[in-house]
Design a protein that fits this description.
The structure is a homodimer.
Chain A lengths: L3 E5 L4 H13 L4 E4 L10 H6 L8 E4 L2 E4 L1 H9 L9 H32 L6 H4 L2 H19 L12 H10 L13 H11 L10
Parallel strand pairs in A: 1-2
Antiparallel strand pairs in A: 1-3, 3-4
Helix pairs in contact in A: 1-3, 1-7, 4-6, 4-7, 6-8
């Protein structure tokens, strides 16, 4: 495989997904750090060379770039056991990865970013006005996960897949965004299972 | 293939993606309609049998369900020419599909839904407070698309893929949400190319 470089912010859960996938696969990743809060992913150079969408993570493969965390994970895991070989299960894995980006990340991750990194005092009026809707939507996403995990060990089939990796990243740090995981017993048990997998890597370390 | 049933709202662009993918592949889809505005995807029966996340589209394959439009498209197209066979291109296709769900749909599709279907007068104060941020973010997504399409015919490689189908659905009706496509010449030319592909099906028809 060509040289793999991860353009990332180490505190970002989206970036952690890519590192966790690489850890499970035993793939070496070079790491380049950017500070989102300092606007380092919105510079003209970053927009021109790395990602015109101004976001991280971006996985660099040789001289080509793959933005979007879940697409980067798919690139790394393509052909491995982290992607189910059965057609329905493969689509079902993507279903949970799209759910993660649409229903989970914009609520669970955004509240963590706003409350634990930006700081509630520094939020704009527009952001403050979204706190309660995002709290409600984040809890709804956690409840959907909890119902699905009742009687299952992993999101798809009977082994770890990218669906688990994508959802683990921000779920296991959801309390940093003020989410109480106590009501979600199946989610808590699953967090323990994912963290106990051989090859697991912690978010910061 | 098992019987395919699309649980949908005919005016939803997310549902149209699945129909458009099926049209290109020549796959028959049975259609079941639900009216989002009447809450028909939030009934106890829908939540229990179809999708605990209360959303459409859901692709039913035999007695199994695939929520999330882009995952349903992937299921239908798996193994076809709508998904690139080259590893980088396959991940790059998913990159644009995740971009669509994260940066495009919540802005371009939501403003269309709010302005053309709910009606501006009926919006909540919280929704009204998000109009200008969603307008700005939707235009930013269209600008990213436009820059990418300069000198290219399609989003990935040199032929139609699911990336084009996913992004076409809400882009070609973006003016219904008040977006002016005039500044995005490459996007407008691409809309024409996608609509001229053999096997294309219009959104309503």
């Amino acid at each position: 495989m060509e040289t793999l470089i991860l353009h990332e912010d180490p505190v970002s859960g989206n970036c952690y997904k890519v590192r966790l996938t690489a850890a499970h696969l035993g793939l070496p990743l070079e790491r380049r750090s950017y500070d989102i809060l300092k606007g380092e992913t919105r510079t003209p150079d970053f927009l021109a060379r790395i990602n015109s969408n101004g976001r991280i993570p971006v996985l660099q493969v040789g001289d080509r770039m793959i933005p979007e965390s879940n697409a980067a994970c798919f690139y790394l895991a393509d052909g491995s056991l982290l992607i189910p070989t059965e057609r329905f299960d493969r689509a079902d894995m993507l279903r949970w990865m799209f759910f993660e980006q649409y229903n989970h990340e914009p609520n669970v991750a955004t509240l963590r970013f706003w409350l634990a990194f930006v700081g509630e005092q520094a939020l704009s009026e527009a952001q403050r006005g979204q706190l309660s809707a995002k709290r409600k939507a984040g809890n709804a996403a956690l409840a959907v996960m909890d119902r699905h995990l009742a009687g299952r060990d992993f999101f798809v089939g009977d082994r770890l897949s990218l669906a688990d990796i994508a959802l683990f990243a921000y779920t296991h740090v959801a309390p940093e965004g003020g989410f109480d995981l106590a009501p979600y017993g199946h989610v808590r048990a699953w967090i323990g299972r994912v963290a106990a997998q051989p090859g697991h890597a912690a978010m910061v370390g």
